[in-house]
Design goal:
The chain is mainly α and about 300 residues long. The chain is built from 14 helices and no strands. Helix 8 runs antiparallel to helix 14 and helix 13 packs antiparallel against helix 14. The protein is globular, with a radius of gyration of 19 Å.
Amino acid sequence: MFIRLCRPPFLFGTLLLYILGCGMAHYIGSRLDSRMMFLGLGWVVFIQLGSQFFSAYFDVPGDLYTLNRKLISEGFHALEPQDLRRAIAFLAGSLSLTLAASLSVVLWSEGSLSPAVVIILLFVFMGTILSSFPPVRLVTTGYGELMNSVLFANLVPALAFLLQNEEMHRLVTLTTTPLFPLYLGMLLVYELTDYTNDLRQDKRTLMVRLGWRNGMRLHNGLVLAGFILLGVSLLAGLPVRIGGPVYFVLPLGLVQIWQMRRITEGSKPQWMMLTLNSVALLMTTVYLLAYGYWVR
């Protein structure tokens, strides 16, 4: 259960996004500081774990009835007793945020944090609190998905970059802007698999607020928007040798849109294939971008 609560695909995606940020710093010639690199990565991972654990803790008992969460499940429905599940989630979340706080002190003691880094650290921390903790709990309002997409698709690479380079570079914006719609699209796929349960439990996710038809149309538009924004980034100065290969992933995006259209037309959903495809689309995109920056 603990491994399922960690939601490994999301952690792996965060790792790739962080590596992408370091790769951009490497590409422009910054001398990489391995100590700062690992301190920043540890901080991001523990913040994410704390958010996931507490989100799961406050979701009980609603998620006990979730049937479709598989690959990226919080996993509560698979274990007994309920009190033990909640205790593990609470203790694990508390430990994760405590470790993140400890790393914050270490990062501060380094004395080399720029104002931009401090702002990002505060924004990510506050975003985590607002997303996962009552009374706000953005994950149940339909706005948490937007917050998380910004935090992980945009701010995590920016944080990794700024820990190695004192000033922001336009490559960060050009590279991460197309990732935002792809990340949000992946979250919508995740929510579609739990749509019935979330609706029954009055969990107001973005998919529930929009309705499944509008949510699926938004998903399709987001996938296309990701590749359109990539083209805009290429025209704006993103090196073709870095951004160009990402278009080899376009067939995955088209397959994902095709799967969504089939569900809309009444075909039986293949949840595992849809989930795997959405995760592969984002992660392959991030991997190709990171590879381009690291292998120059």
